[in-house]
Amino acid sequence: MSADDLARASRARTESAEHRARQGLSALSRSGRPVTFASVAREAGVSTDFLYKHAELRMLIADLRARPRGVPGQASVPVAANSSAVRALSTQLKEQRARYEAELATLRTALATAQAENLALRRKLGGRPSGH
After folding, report:
1. How far apart are CA 111 and CA 57, in angstroms?
2. Are 51 and 21 in contact (CB under 8 A)?
3. Which residues contact 57 (CB under 8 A, 6 or more apart)?
4. pLDDT tens, position by position, 78-95
5. What is the rounded distance in angstroms from the CA atom of residue 126 to the CA atom of residue 67?
């Protein structure tokens, strides 16, 4: 399995977890049950750590926790696509991701260079590179 395959699989798992978390938030909100990180995690089958690390979900949960519980059957999950705060956070996350991807590319190049230099030095010293 290539690195690209692993990255795609990881993105798919994350997207699935995000979808389940949003469904869990809606279900809790509609039923009038308390919205907490633990209750959303249980409902969605995700970890609380995932929810805390996901900025948009964390903000939605915090917002719903602060609201008084409504009547069961009334959805009170805000429409995230219309929120300027969510758009701003999404933009920040995209920019940060681009910076991290650029840094990762630089580090991969540096690692490949260091590995090549290491191999050249081992050959020069007469040792054989380990097959591990």
Report:
1. 35
2. yes
3. 18, 21, 22, 25, 40, 51
4. 544 456 777 788 888 888
5. 70
Amino acid residing at 89: L
Strands (E), 16-118: none
Which two tokens mark 96? 């940060």
Considering only CA atoms, give the Rg of the chain.
Answer: 22
Q: pLDDT tens across 38-58, in order?
A: 999 999 999 999 999 988 888
d(C-alpha 34, C-alpha 70), whole Å: 10
Question: How many CB atoms sit inside 10 A of residue 89's CB?
Answer: 16
Is the pLDDT higher at 5 or at 41? 41
